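Show me any protein, fold above all:
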Amino acid sequence: MVTRVKASAGGATSARASARQAAQDVAGKVQRNVRRAVAGTLGLVGERMTKVDTAWLRMDCDANLMMIVGVWQLAPGVKYAAVCERIENTLLRYDRFRQRVLEDAGGATWVEDRNFDLRNHVVLEKLPKVARGHDQEALQDRVAALATQRLDPKRPLWQIHLIEDYTGPDGIKGSAMIVRIHHCIADGIALISVTMSLVDGGVAPPGREARTASGQSAAHSAEDWIADTLLKPFTDITVKALGVMGEGAARSLGMLGDPEGMKDGLEKGLGKGVSNSLDMAKVLFQVLSDSAALALMPDDSRTRLKGKPGGTKKVAWCPPIPLEEVKAVGKALNCSINDVLLSCVAGALGEYLKSLGDDVKGQEIRAMVPVNLRPAHQPHDQAHTLGNRFGLVPLVLPIGVDNPVERVYEVRRRMAALKGSYQPLLAFSLLAVAGLLIKPAQDVMLNLFAKKTTAVMTNVPGPRDKLKFCGSTLEQSMFWVPQSGDVGLGVSILSYGGGVQFGVITDSVLCPDPQRIIDEFLPEFARLSIVTLMLPWGESA
């Protein structure tokens, strides 16, 4: 009996000790998490991620990962060792590509990856063997598969997949590179600077001095910038101050993309009195109008391109068309190159839907178009710190307008209506606010965009001359920005090396064969070209 009691007491003591140890472990974890969150919030560990970049980090979902995905086609081929050497000497000079992300209760922090191994980020692989002439289809399938694979959160959020032996559709043997970069690292404009440091004879990557010098400007993070340029003007005190700034304030608000310009405008404006308060009223009216337009934007048209995505992707792109031909059509119609290309996109989408038996007459679909918010006089601004400095503007594509000339003029009218809009800045501020929220609340906020949008579309002008990489010619380049929420269509237009390429990435549930959309793009441009040539001289404008 005594032995049994002693055993029971010993068991109870052991259980209490185990429970105490478990409690200590839990308390230790909580302490570490709190310490990490506080240290990160105060900037004591690593570099604090901006709230806008945090929003992009948290926006990953099963249907859409927030990765910028690109493809380079090179001829002749390049070797793995040469690519690694180039990456080591260029890309890794940017801190972000050696840093991983450490999330905490207050957001996220960039920290150095002490176990960084380039072999985890430059991956050598082969495409499956396919029938002759079908290599591009195999490459497209691989791009689509990688677009749905998450990057390892324990490492820097980027990866390059090198296919040393790839034969293009023109029969030229070379290599292909598939690039994946998480959007929290940088937007497309910032990555252009990175690209220009990768190519032969390109811009030198940042040195240690440049990074140190940029540390001061990094303190003016995106959320600080938004607070200074958008949120503060709407506080009671600042609104009263703005009322007496006149022309200086209008000019300041007109330079919202430039933090320094904003500060200069405020300082000069305070001394100018009420001479041009009408300008300020116009600016504020425009801001309020654009805010209402975003808030009251109706849901998008219910086409088969809109719905619940399934989480698998399909990718397709067309061969380049000569940029000079696009310029000629635009000049004849008194339209921009952008107007012509967007009109062809609208026509291709409309023809695709009609080919499936859908009635698109009078139909429109909305595409969110990124707009650069960096200062125009600093095209490579923030190249060292990277990050996201762009807004989104909704463009409604008239897919139901059959006449190609009528359609291009309608696109031109709608693009003109967007000039001077503050909607990109408002969308940027929305992302900044979303970055402050916990993920479920952020998802609710950002899903509002998905309900009102069918596609995300980018139109990027690239270099006029073809670039070189490791001694090989970069023959073709294509990339896609991610779609968020339930948006299942991404459209990219890229001008490069004297040509223009059109590419799409789709959710396979909503659009199982994006090649059918691609196949409509060139015929749409041909229709527009022919009709333009047939117009009477002097009546095309």
